[in-house]
Batch of 2 targets.
Target 1
Amino acid sequence: MLSRREFLNFSAATIALISLPNQIQSKQLIRNYKLTAGVTPHLFNNKGALDSLWLYNGQTPGPVIEANENDIIRVEFVNNLDEPSTIHWHGIKNINKMDGVPYLTQNPVQPGESFLYEFPVNHAGTFWYHAHVETWKQISKGLYGPLIVKNHVDEKFDDDIVILADDWRLNKNYQLDEKSFGSLHDWSHAGRIGNWLTINGKKFPEYSINKNGHTRLRFINASNARILSFGSSLEGMKIISIDGMWVEPFIQDKFNLGPGQRVDLLIKTDDLSTIDFFEVSGKKPLSAFKLNVSQISKKNIIKKDINLQSFKKIPNYKNPKILKIHMQGGAMGNLAKAYFEGVKKNFRSLAMEEKKFWAFNKEVGKYEHLLASVKKGQIIILEVWNDSRWPHSMHLHGNHFYVESKEFSNNDKLVLRDTYLMQPSENSKFIYLADNPGKWLFHCHMLEHAASGMIGYIEVL
Ligand code: C2O
Ligand code: CU
């Protein structure tokens, strides 16, 4: 039986999913932030040389942008780089013109210029923001940060920790390996895989949490291309939220996180003194971080279980609009020919002349590449077929879609995601209601793949 409160949560979630977002109302609270992108000195390792990263407000990761559900976030973005940039709010069901996609939703913000982003946030959850111009370089140099939206459920947690992971590629002087930016090998294979994993900018950070408390851990994968894989010293990890959306909680021994994806865990600290987490995607485990349980609670711990909000199954729908996306390309692939800017070329000349390796439906994409036009109010089924030898982390801007996920150990788990990690040869259906007008980018979040053709947009009219 649902309690009254759960029932209310349930209906609130339902309404949020189908109602139109994004009309700014007069009584909403405004959260003001300023993000300045600039060149910042950074030392990765004492044995190495000083490096210069591109960071927001001189921090890696950039500052946490935080708001409550239904607030308005207002960010003054100042570009102090000597290249144009924009900011995208990954996972937010945004107003299209605030989505931060250069050429498609706004002009790039030129060096020395600024831009005001202002948008409501109608879903509590774990999101992030990042640069969206030449992402393969700008994100790689550090232009990203967490974006956390909270609601009443969050008041019950005793600790709330963001775990933003990045996979840097450093040279032997422990500086960003800039020589390999744009490497054809990376672009046609798995993308830029690094060799230096950080959690919140540090190598082996430790955090302290309250004894007997409930801790929410918010994992974000900001890597260019590495699929992270987390395990822990816990019996099992309880996943409560995926890409900022609630799920029916479930337990996993380990979980993968494709670039752009998020997973939130709920941890209870009874009887434990430390909890270790490690990242195991490499040849040897890259020890990641540790939680130290303080034996004396600083807080008034309420020893009750937390009522999480429920997951709302796919509503019934009629007459869906089916859009097919056939993904091809890359090394060892089957893309013989494809169109780029209207010209049909073979794979070799696409690679050599245009530096393009990937296509949707035999068309090499770019920001302004229209994939499909649909009417507002239609239910969309994106039938996505990964007909390549590589996994891809497929991200749709401005929407969360239902997908029968094969990412967890219990196969075919229905979840809501904004980024879905697809295996080679996988076919999947992304189902969503096109209720938000605008031009919504769809691309691989392995940033080198997006840069070399795996990108386009779906327009909602
Ligand atoms: Cu997080 Cu278009 O991306
Ligand atoms: Cu990809």
Target 2
Amino acid sequence: MEAKFIAYNKQSYSETETIDRSIEHLAYMDRRRTVREFSSRPIPIEVLENIIMSASTAPSGAHKQPWTFCIITNNDYKTKIKEAAEKEEFESYNGRMPEEWLEDLSYLGTDWHKPFLETAPALIIVFKKSYDIIDNKKRNNYYVTESVGLACGFLLEAIHYCGLVALTHTPSPMNFLTKLLNRPENEKPFLLIPVGYPADNTIVPDLQRKNKNDIINYY
Ligand code: IYR
């Protein structure tokens, strides 16, 4: 394919403005928390579409955009997903997860019950596509996990920007979603993200984030 280039639409800030923006953005991002209790207040479909389109602005290997998003607002689907996820999670919490893993999770208070899969007004299920099918031919995608991970990061930021909250849920194994949602063979479930407004008086674990010295190395 022949490359076509256009002018980059840049934004210019002075050094002080850049510093101020970085401080503001850090404070804003630091307010994001994973939330497990949702209000049932519905989210306008336009909002769900826009946050997904924000996610889809993420960079991807060879710009293949190897992702699909399913929006679940239908109660029957939510119930089916909850039942299937809890069945897997029950097995995970009762034998599949090693002792160390359970110990690492104990302070978060998670267990196999997943009520948020029904209470959240919307579930966004992210699928990764290891290949595309174009004119009946398989076309490879690249750095699929990295690309879809980046898109999910963008999605979480968009959710936060809208004053909504989310939970990055990882029922394991997740292949029940492929069947339930009748997804094609080239799509694999990646993350299940309930999205909504936080329930009144929601509490979150009192976590500390790592500090600069723990995560940054200077050379
Ligand atoms: N998938 C399970 C277990 C779980 C695993 C990790 I790592 C977490 O940070 C939280 C939960 C669940 O969703 O409960």
